[in-house]
Design goal:
This protein has 306 residues and is mostly beta strands. 9% of the residues lie in helices and 43% in strands. The chain has 2 helices and 18 strands. The strands form 4 sheets. Strands 6-7-8-9-18-14-13-12 form an 8-stranded antiparallel β-sheet, with helices on one face. Strands 1-2-3-4 form a 4-stranded antiparallel β-sheet, with no helix packed on it. The chain has a 4-stranded antiparallel β-sheet with strand order 5-11-16-15, with no helix packed on it. The protein is globular, with a radius of gyration of 20 Å.
Length: 306
């Protein structure tokens, strides 16, 4: 009887240790499973490497993002693209009145995305308000173009950390925001660890495309995998079928560095009118090991029916 009771207590402790919890501070929000962090969202601006322009400071992104074993699957401020920040989003090529703000390429100093305030939180997620702000004219006057509600919710299984990335954007300006056809930019972007390269990592999409042939193709999901300090890990991103231009086209790189952007304006332009609301939904699944295509497809069927 004592042995059974001890086993019960141990099982209970292990179950509790895997519960999802949230820690909120002035600078960031951390979500954990047990005592191991899953992701960190940055409320305060994070400085770029020493010697870089101050314009590369930015808030409103996720890094690090980790697998169940703790392997890190994101990278920030790579030397080739200092504005790449783990898991983030921004529009690139745009037209707003007489100006052409670029919210993505921070070095141009014509626009950026920033955290504004925490709207709500619970044990498994949070919602924040963000802004895509343009610096207009010769005086670089701030004009908020888009107000955003970004909701992050997390659940876990023994095999994976599952994150829902739910973004609503509203044009709060008095003019339309025009987004012409362009090869990248949009509602979700990802930069992999700096150590991932053409020899130790790859892409796999729902259409069977990989590093060499996935760019500009459409996909329901894209898995990217490579080594971490805790063993191989895979990050799988899924675009909801109700998103604009779904299944969306991908921006991927064939040269070895790991980057992905879900790009709904590769084929069709998009205009966001004053007071118009747009909603974007993605699911991010981080697992240990290499991609299990059957398991991913099961999760996709669950997601697309949601």
């Amino acid at each position: 009887m004592a042995l059974k009771f001890s086993v019960f207590i141990l099982s209970f402790i292990l179950a509790v240790a895997q519960e999802v919890s949230l820690v909120d501070s002035e600078k960031d929000i951390v979500i954990l499973r047990g005592n191991r962090d899953i992701l960190t969202y940055h409320k305060s601006e994070v400085a770029p490497p020493e010697g870089a322009k101050k314009a590369y400071r930015r808030s409103g992104f996720i890094h690090p993002l980790k697998s169940p074993k703790g392997g890190i699957v994101t990278g920030i401020h790579p030397g080739d693209h200092l504005h790449h920040l783990g898991l983030w989003h921004a529009w690139v090529k745009s037209k707003h009145g007489k100006d052409q703000p670029d919210f993505w390429n921070l070095g141009k100093e014509s626009g950026k995305v920033r955290f504004l305030k925490l709207l709500n939180k619970n044990a498994t997620g949070f919602t924040v308000e963000q802004e895509q702000v343009a610096f207009k004219g010769s005086k670089r006057e701030e004009t908020v173009i888009l107000k955003e509600a970004l909701s992050i919710s997390v659940r876990t299984t023994n095999e994976a950390n599952i994150i829902d990335y739910h973004l609503t954007q509203k044009n709060v300006s008095s003019e339309k925001l025009e987004l012409p056809i362009y090869r990248y930019g949009g509602p979700l972007a990802y930069r992999g660890p700096h150590s991932w390269n053409s020899k130790n990592s790859n892409y796999l999409t729902s259409a069977g495309k990989m590093r060499r042939d996935s760019h500009a193709t459409r996909a329901n999901w894209c898995a990217i995998f490579g080594p971490t300090e805790k063993g191989d890990a895979t990050i799988t991103m899924m675009g909801h079928p109700k998103n604009f231009d779904s299944p969306q086209r991908l921006r991927t790189w064939p040269d070895g560095k790991v980057f992905l952007c879900w790009t709904p304006i590769q084929e069709k332009p998009l205009v966001i009118l004053p007071d118009q609301l747009l909603t974007w939904r993605y699911r991010i699944i981080v697992s240990d090991g290499k991609p299990d295509e059957k398991a991913i497809n099961r999760l996709w069927e669950e997601y697309q029916a949601d």
